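From: lab user (bench 3)
To: helpdesk
Subject: output format question, protein + manganese (II) ion

Hello, I'm new to running complex predictions and I'm not sure whether the block I got back is the full result or only part of it. Here's what I submitted:
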Amino acid sequence: MKMHEKHYANRRKSVLKMIDEGVILIPAAIYQIRSNDTEYPFRQNSNFYYLSGFEEDNALLLLQRSKKGMKQILFVQKKDRAKAVWTGKRLGVSGAKKRFLVDKVYAMEALDKILSTVLRGVQNVYIDLYDRKEFFHHILGLCQTLHHDRRVKVSPKCFLHVNSLIEQMRLIKSHDEIATIERALAITAVAHETAMKVAKEGMFEYELQAKIEEIFRANGARSDAYSTIVAGGNNANTLHYIANDAKLRQGDLVLIDAGCEYEMYASDITRTFPVSGTFSPAQKALYEMVLQVQLQVIAAIRPGIRRSKLQKLCEEKLCAGMIALGIIKGRLKTVLKNGMHKKYFPHGVGHWMGIDVHDQAPYNDEQGKELRLEPGMVLTIEPGLYIDKHDKSVPKRYRGIGIRIEDNIVVTATGHRNLSQHIAKSVAEIESLCVGVTPAR
Ligand code: GLY
Ligand code: MN
Ligand code: MN
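Helpdesk reply: Thanks, we reran it on our side. This is the complete output you should expect:
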């Protein structure tokens, strides 16, 4: 959702208010080489986008706070007629001046010269210390020159990780951000439900992937939010299975973890359904158990609760379910204490989601204390159960089954709202969507 420029300007102001003095540098993403002279599809840097809404590559935000006040400067690429023939038009300096509510706009070419002036008298530089090392080292080089210049009395000596500031802001989503996630989920819903309708024995996993991604693109999503997982049968037990190159087999379940990115916001949904259209009794027993766990964990979401509490609840309920079904033997307390269930549920209950599918946001405060959920936070809840086909410690009927059920939840003042509530999930809903036609031979 395109927001009014003043919202971005206010976000920049809010970041500046988090520091006493210093310069904040946030570069846009740059194209990455895929091979030789071809590039990966361009994806804007999430923090740069959050603070500007600008989608061009090779730009930079410079925000400054000093005793004299706050300053917002944007650097963009100049218009270039020759390049425009190949890569299209850019906004350019004059276009950017008209669009953005910043104090100044310069061409990227002027960056070093302007920085050499701006950084005089500045102590603190807030910058991404980890993911843009080349850029960071370039800035260090400029600061070093100032450091050795005897005429410069004060130059930067303190470099701080700027992402930590922005991540805190990104944790609480505005009404507009939640609406954008809901639009992403509306598209993702069609993709998952179509996959349930068209899946059949003999189809390759990548055919379902293609169908899902076609629906993403055809509905205005520019990309998936992460690599689509289509995992038939035992492949679902590989958590990050993205080969998607096996045939779907009659009698197997298929796990699909797929979500589109719509206007820079992610969705992250997993559904698991039978290739044949009907769950076998063993599949149904496991599925119903995981679903009940998921519903109970979601029901516990409210302001004040910690994510670790949700993790604990999820593990307890899954353990109890696994013991009841004869997958693990032992007393609940002992099983939990010894972590015997981790073999079958090795991952977290969920994660923050927003501009990134795993949103860059802290789980602990600066003192290391775990955060409590607050209204506006968006997280996934994704319990799973993964039983390898060779696991002889488990009754045969359960082997080779991998199940995950994942929804996207926003915390509200009174509890929560499941933003993906509408995507078929109960056994009855899934079976009525899955046609499960056996192809003619
Ligand atoms: N699709 C990535 C995840 O569920 O975390
Ligand atoms: Mn997830
Ligand atoms: Mn997922």
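A quick orientation on your result: The pocket of manganese (II) ion (ligand 2) is lined by residues 268, 351, 380, 382, 406 (CB under 6 Å). Let us know if anything else is unclear.
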